[in-house]
Structure formats: C-alpha cells, structure tokens
Predict the 3D structure of the following.
Amino acid sequence: MGSMNSLTISQAHQKLKAKEISAVELTQSCIDRIESIDDSLNAVVYRNFERALEKAKKIDAVGTFDHPLTGIPYLAKDVYCEKDVPTTACSNILRNKDYIPPFESTTTSRLMDVGAISLGKVNTDEFTMGGSTETSCYGVTRNPWNRDCVAGGSSGGSAAAVAADECLFALGTDTGGSIRQPSAFCNCTGLRTTYGRNSRYGVMSMASSLDTIGCLTKTVEDTAIVLSAIAGKDPLDATTGDVPVPDYAAALTGTIQGKKIGMPKEYFMDGMSEEVKQSVLDATEVLKSLGAEIIDVSLPHTAYATPCYYILCPSEVSSNMARYDGIRFGHMPEEERGKRKEESLIEYYHLVRTEGFGDEVKRRIMIGTYALSAGYYDAYYRQAQKVRTLIKNDFDDVYQTVDAVISPVTPSAAFRVGAHEGDPVAMYLEDIFLDPQVMAGIPALSVPCGFTKDSMPLGLQIMGPQWGEETVLQIAHAYEQATEWHTKKPAL
C-alpha cells in the first residue's frame, strides 16, 4: 500500500475505523511528505501543521470515525477563507497586507464539522486568473510528472498536491476549467459542479456568475464522499440551489448498462494532439464494453464559448476587484506610508494596484471595464450574454436524447513552464473544451484516461445535465474501475 499519505479517503477511513492507524499518524505522514518534496513543486504556500496536529489529537481522543472524512487531511486553495489563517489569493495586494480572515468559508466549515483536517493553503494563479499557476505571487507550481511543465491552473497547487500524495484531497475552484484542466494535467479526478450546488460564501470571487466550488481527489469515490459533505443550500449564499443533495457514493453502482453518452463533433478539431484524440476514442471503447451506447451529437455554438467567456469573465472581474483599493482591502503602498498626503484618491488607487496586482489581473480588469463601458456594453457584454443562452440551449437540447456527454479535457497534455509567456491569447485558447460547460452552468468531471509517449497524463471529460452530478460520477466510476490510469503515480 505504501505510506499512509498515499491512501485514498476511502482506504484511510477503513484503517482509521479499524484503529490500524491514527489521525495523528495520517496527518504526520502528509506533513512529512510536504516537507520532503514540496520545495521542488511549490504547491503549498501556507503550512498550518501545528493546528492540524492539534485537531488530529482531539479526533483520536474521541476515537469515533463514523463519517468518512473524520481525521482526513486536506489542503485548501488559497482563496478559501479559514478563520485566523492567512489567505492571500496568491496576490501581493493581500500578501503584503497580511490579510487574516475573521470568518470561515461555508465549505471549510462543513468539512470542519465532519472532522476533516486542514493542513494549509495551496498555490493558485493570482485571484484564480490564469491557466497554469504562473501568475501567483509565490511563483509557479511544478507538475509532479515533469517539473519542467506546469501543473495547470488555476487550481494547480491543489492538483500537484493530490498527485504527489501531499494530502488525501484538495479544495479547488472552477470558473473556466480551473479544476478540470489541472486534474487532467496531473492525473487526478476533478469535478466542476452545477453552478449553485456548493456555497461560494467565504471564497474570494473572480467571476460571480461563473465561479464554482469543488474538489480534486485520487478517485471518483473520494470525489463523491467530499461532494456529499460540502454540497447543499446555504443561507449565506443566495445563489445556492434549494435542491436535495443525493447520496453520491450510493450512485457508484459500477454499472452503466444502457446509458446513452454523446460525442460532440465540435470537440475534435484540427490542431489538437493526436494522443489526446486517441485516448478519448479508446475511452469510448471501454464505455461501450460496459454497456453504454455512444451517440454522435452536435453542440453548434461550442466555438463561441471561449470568446464569450473572455468577455463575461473580465467584466465580472472588473467589478469584483474594485474592493481591493487599499482602503477596504489591500495593502498601503510603500510610498504612501506617512508621505505624499497631497495625492488624490485616484492617484492613491493607482499606487495600490500598480504594486499589488500582477499583469493578468490588470489585463482582465481593463478588458472588463472596457466591455462594460458606455457605448460598448451592448456591443460586447449584452451580446455575450445572448450567446451564453444559445450555448446553454445546445446542452439542453442534447440532454433530451443522451444522459451525458464526453470529450477531451484539453487539446494537449501539460505544457512547459513559460510556453505561453507574453501570449495571453494562446493561454486563453487552452480553455477551448472547458468554457462551454461554464456558460451552461452544468457539471463536468475530469478522470484519468491515458498518458502521452512522454509519460504525461491525459484526462477524459464527462459532462452531465444541470444537477446531474450523480450521473457524471456513476459513469466516471464505472470507467475508472475498468481501467488503471488513476492508480499510476509520479516518481518523486
């Protein structure tokens, strides 16, 4: 089995319940792993080990492990607010301020209630803006499978930590693919839930109508366990849906006999990696062997999803980032401390943001402000919202005839660090298979489905209808049980 930190949630729960291991031993195993390898990965940006061990001791003293997450160590993306724990969104505007939240996010609070143990914070693109974790003020996170490559983004720290067995699961967020893409790059399972399935309270916003809360895990079963604990209506977040939370683990029957699964032609295009294409085609053969029916479908507005996303997302960014002004949130500029009292408020804001924000955040604020400005709102923002509706309608139509849709996660495997430096549009185009689901607000999961000839992981994307996480997890679990891709580990 290897060391304790390599266990899945399900395996660790059984051992904790049988008293074969303790919560302290399990937590210490993850801490030792982080301390031994993370300098080469740069996944963990804040280590809360003392508090984690204190909690583990209390859990062991009680000695009951009725919930599958009791005593399970995890890491949280550095946008989840935990009371009295530094949280920076990997941005100098908060890092320089030493911001410490006085409250707990709903997600971490729910995990705390069932006895999960937070080890600290993991790296992310600044305010989750990026697809490679290269915009973080703490520097890039390296891919455990090849440290010359990115781990993906923006939940790159979460994916690298899970793949490297630094924790048993990690929390991430998915706005434009930020859970699914790093999961595919690092050989993890990552689920973007239906918009409104999980509470966003206490999680720093990028684009409020697009952000979703989710997890990155080692298996589909583990994803079902975590989702069951964190999902559901929250009075602190009005966007959460007042719909029942199923027993997701019970949906993992292992059978998908008779399921109808759509294959959209628009997701197989010129320029994509032949290895990516072949891995998905091979996966369809596995699904067929399990009794599923593969049906060709069309999602005609797919090509417009990424341009649409990169109007709507920056527009919401420009609004959400307004609070970081050096007065309500954000640091005071070096030059301003005790000096230059004659400056105007606008000049003060300029100083705060010049020092505090990185290039990608500034870029998106400017794009969004432009798209929302007088004379351009109708031409850009309103048109993008109309296209968003058309994309949602495409999926609604397809789900009249199929239970789920499959596709590649990304057009290629993980790229090298710096590959898109100075070319933000090339980075945006990495999201081409990840933005349509965002526009439609539907769940989508990445599950390991193969490797390139260079031993880099590839992912299969499984999409379901609104509130259709059960179906997505059921199909992903059946596929996972029939293959061994998820069992492979990087050599570290």
Summary: The chain has 16 helices and 13 strands. The domain at 4-257+437-487 is CATH 3.90.1300.10 (Amidase signature (AS) enzymes).
